Amino acid sequence: MSGGPRFEYLWADGQKFKKPTPLPAREYISHLMDWIEMQINNQDLFPCTSDRPFPRNFPNLCSKILARLHRVFVHVYIHHFQNIVTIAAEAHVNTCYKHFYYFVTEFQLVSQKELEPLGEMAARICKDPST
């Protein structure tokens, strides 16, 4: 899956795709959603009761999930934004991205390097909420 000419996202899940593998966006996103569902449904990773502790790698796992979801935003904005405009959904998609951006930056869950592909856009639409 690509995020324009400068960014290529390879899929690896440690099971079926042990090595980073180029995939079309549709397959990358499908594998991503399946992978996220498996992580969230694994009670060793996302415990459902207060008597089970969260694993030590929980923050890293959340960061990985959110970084991969950000890549979907990158792909959609770069390759499909005109389709979003055509159906008059740009305000909705921008609002979704802003909520995502504010959350991951507030809690430092996605690196600046990972946010770079949409950095210019984020600077325009995601104003510092404290000002």
TrEMBL record:
Pfam families: Mob1_phocein. It comes from the Eukaryota. The keyword Manganese does not apply. Gene3D superfamilies: MOB kinase activator. Zn(2+) binds at H75, H80. Keywords: Metal-binding, Zinc. PANTHER family: MPS ONE BINDER KINASE ACTIVATOR-LIKE MOB. This is MOB kinase activator-like 3. It comes from Acanthoscelides obtectus (Bean weevil).
